[in-house]
């Protein structure tokens, strides 16, 4: 056996870039990208990506250098998921909702040599670069103007600070401080194949990009759609009426999104029962069971999973059992709200006791920290050996910082982020459990629960809610009415002691409620003596 060693024939490096070559051959005439009145085939997309990779090399981008992208889900954003790694550079997708200061830190920390900038974000990026220290070399800027492409006209945007337009260099080719999560080609390959298998994605699906590609690389589906020859329906902003229109117009089969997207769709004034089933994959925060039930009642088939930027996508999923189909809708939704079991591409997932390091009891009650191990995990954090060592422990586990339980049937359920657990009078309160009850109240549109400092209890649950606005409300409920509703359904120590009504809860661009903002408000309320 010692003579049976790896050799070039059986140890080819794993990469998702080959998916695009295959798609051009297998699905060459099929649509790859659709956006407004622009569409490309897989053969055209393959050619455009090769041209852009060549252009990057011509611009002096060298292997291992960082190329950043600040753009929404437009065609160029999708193409760059292939073009940048094709050139040998490192791809850095950046959230378009960041402030200039944070963006400036990101660009400096990553030492970006080139930045592709959507025309709606040009002023933001220019402000971020203006914050660079003196004598610091600025990255080159390329302007993405999809309106110029779709209209066939020249852009009216100012280009004095930009090297060129995206289409211009494409033509040349024919001739908190943020964490720098680093993923290898091998990890992305494993995650992409794993995602396709776990979600049972067929050949040539029609995929609607409701999930920002800059969020954990679109959960690996930019490369996944190339692997199966899917059609990518691109659009700029998540809007329920537009989503319903695009689903009907293009016969969408698959889409992804955070639970807030499900809530938007199921509460939209434009809500309509779908004329065909649409597979929707949700993750990002524990989805309330009432939201899952409402979403499935209008024709969506919801799949639920769990992952992090550090895992490249979803690595734990609620693998569905056929016998559960016989259960009532509300019970099915409750089971589906659990995160589930490790996908086939993840070696192992568990919940460990923070004191002993041993697996917790599988009783659905004993909490611990969620840990993972597998080939799709991050290599570590760029220029942050301390941060890497804190989560990548010598015992062979990646520590997520999430608190969860394991049920008797082996299914994992996330209870909260460790920093979000509310400790009131010595009792641990899981905010998602309280939020799920609040979401079941007919008038509630959004809900979030955070800790409010309390002199006697240490902390008490403080609920922030927004109410529905679609004309269904005959009378606005009072704070006491909602608190009593919770009291009838929860242990009394878990019932919110304070209820705050907001027009809309603060959220990130990916739909996660910004609880740190709500915690500041709750803390300020306690300082001024608001009960």
Describe the structure.
The protein folds into 3 domains: 119 residues, Rossmann fold (3-Layer(aba) Sandwich); 180 residues, Rossmann fold; 108 residues, 2-Layer Sandwich (GMP Synthetase, Chain A, domain 3), CATH 3.30.300. 32% of the residues lie in helices and 24% in strands. The chain has a 9-stranded mixed beta sheet, with helices on both faces. A 5-stranded parallel beta sheet has the order 4-3-5-6-7, with helices on both faces. A 4-stranded antiparallel beta sheet has the order 16-17-19-20. The chain is globular.
Summary of the model, kept short:
This protein has 17 helices and 25 strands.
Properties at a glance:
17 helices; 531 residues; 24% strand; GMP Synthetase, Chain A, domain 3; Rossmann fold; single chain; five-stranded parallel β-sheet; alpha/beta; nine-stranded mixed β-sheet
Question: What would you say the CATH architecture of the largest domain is?
Answer: 3-Layer(aba) Sandwich
> If helices are DSSP runs of H or I spanning 4 or more residues, what is the number of helices?
17
Radius of gyration: 24 Å
CATH class value of the largest domain: Alpha Beta
Average pLDDT figure: 90
Number of domains: 3
Largest sheet: 9 strands, mixed
- Alpha-beta content class: alpha/beta
- N-to-C span: 72 Å
Across the major sheet, the strand order is: 2-1-10-9-11-12-13-14-15
Strand fraction equals 15-25%
Keywords: Ligase
Pfam families: AMP-binding, AMP-binding_C
Organism: Gossypium barbadense
InterPro entries: AMP-bd_C, AMP-bd_C_sf, AMP-dep_synth/lig_dom, ANL_N_sf
